[in-house]
Amino acid sequence: MSDTPIINIQGLSKSFATKSGDQLQALDDINLSIRPRSFTCIVGPSGCGKSTILRIASGLEKASLGQVLYKGDPVVKPGADIGLVFQEYSLFPWLSVLDNVAAGPEFAGVDKQTRHRDALGFLNMVNMAEFKDAFPHELSGGMRQRVAIARALANEPDVLFMDEPFGALDAHTRILLQQELLSLWEMTHKTVVLVTHSVDEAVFLADEIVIMSARPGRIQDVLTVDMSRPRTRADKAFGELSEFLLHSLSPDRV
Amino acid sequence: MKFFSFAVPLLAPVLLVLCWIWMAARIANQVILPPMDQVLYILAHPFEDLISMGSLTSNLLVSLVRVLLGYASAVAIAIPLGVIMGYYGMVFKAFNGFLNLFRPIPPLAWVPLVMAWFGISSLATMTGVETGQWYVYLNNIKFSMLFIIFVGAFYPILTATIHGVRSVNATLLDSARVLGAGQSQIFRKILIPAAMPAIITGMRIGLGIAWMCLVSAEMLPGSLSGIGYMITHAFTLASTDIVIAGMISIGCVGALMDMVFRRVEKQKFSWQRQTNS
């Protein structure tokens, strides 16, 4: 870890009030630092609060305790430096694909011609340029996620958070998009933090894997993956690491 | 098969017309049921003066202007209020109970109170115009009429707007925030477009009700024109043919306005039907 971290999560805790009035501890003392340009995957069972980490780190929610630093400054509200890709239903259904991708620059006040030209460039990166005039409901699930990724990139963030971005896709599309995401990452030098419940996805993508446990959400382990890319699932090391992760994710308490 | 699908919707109207012809011939009293051709004659000559109250068209136009004014003020208040009530839970709590107190009151039940408040004052009274052609126009727009049309259109638009804003998918709002949208952009560029299909539906229902409130509004004292006034006046003169012709034209104009809205819905909001939310 030679570089200074771009994201620094310090003592982060989050509790929610349930309907019955009890406090539910979703996250308990999360500490994590993310190196610039690294690819980190957070894996964990559902309910471990892994999505909540991203929501707090992108400024959508407030922490109960602790803080998230971006380049040394606390994140207090959403900003253009940090992008977030959701699992689904995040595209604006009344806008064309091109206008969806141009949404961030539009909010920032970029003029129409410039933002459309730039958006087309990002659509090209995800091979969706020919669908620029289509509407989200006319696209397949995989295409929508490509557009969602292009839209996040079009805002030129340093950090890209992804909250189970391929969770709603079929297995084949999912593998395709994982490969595309890796080449985008290599091309754009973004720092990526991806939340997933798929061990396979984490092993395929990540430099670093954060393993979480649930109730309360805690970091159980952080692993560095030193397999070279492109990784193949037929590789022995791939299988061993997956097996190890599966094992640590299914402790005897389940 | 093709012939049937074409003929089925025509079945009921044709039956009605046949019944009318037969009944009118049997009753042979044009105060109770005038022959159809007499009504058709009036409808076919919409610019001819009737019972010295102006033509069918001029009365319809007066009514249309009234409805649109009352309706426009309902739209202008109900949509912003609905967006704010739908978005801010506190504002919803503050106003919802209060507004629901008035919701069950039929617009017509407001008439006595509205007459006490506004009497026969009109836009002419407000603007201070007292003579000339403009006086005639402005004096036709009575506040009491506008109020009743307003009350009729207000609730459906408000309810639909609140519902529309509340059902906006939270992920859309989060996405916009992460992309850097400020609060006013969230309202203008996300909440309102996302809720627009629901708002348009509310506006369509509201316009239908406003149009229906018109006749009662035009029965108010001080009214000197309008399709509703023409119908009631024709009734006192036992001109049932004019009554029926007036009713038919009210129906046609209402259906036409509804059609315009349906068109807009279909063209602009096709995304809504296919989008999962």
Automatic annotation (TrEMBL), chain A:
Domain ABC transporter, residue spans:
7-239
Q: Which keywords are on file for this protein?
A: ATP-binding, Nucleotide-binding, Transport
An example Pfam family from this entry, by short name, is ABC_tran
- Stored SUPFAM superfamilies: P-loop containing nucleoside triphosphate hydrolases (SSF52540)
Single GO molecular-function term? Answer: ATP hydrolysis activity
Reading the lineage from the top rank, the first entry is Bacteria
Recorded hits in PANTHER family, A to Z, give: ALIPHATIC SULFONATES IMPORT ATP-BINDING PROTEIN SSUB, TAURINE IMPORT ATP-BINDING PROTEIN-RELATED
Question: Can you name this protein?
Answer: ABC transporter ATP-binding protein
TrEMBL record, chain B:
The Swiss-Prot or TrEMBL record describes its family as follows: Belongs to the binding-protein-dependent transport system permease family.
Quote any Pfam family the record assigns.
Answer: BPD_transp_1
Q: Which GO terms describe its biological process?
A: transmembrane transport
Membrane-topology descriptor: Multi-pass membrane protein
Source species, please? Answer: Desulfobacter latus
Q: What is this protein called?
A: ABC transporter permease
State the compartments where it is located.
Answer: Cell membrane
Chief localisation class: membrane
An annotated GO cellular component: plasma membrane
| Record Gene3D superfamilies | MetI-like
What region holds the ABC transmembrane type-1 domain?
Answer: 60-261
Q: Where are the transmembrane segments?
A: 68-88, 108-129, 141-158, 190-217, 237-261
Its ancestry begins with: Bacteria, Pseudomonadati, Thermodesulfobacteriota, Desulfobacteria, Desulfobacterales
UniProt KW keywords: Cell membrane, Membrane, Transmembrane, Transmembrane helix, Transport
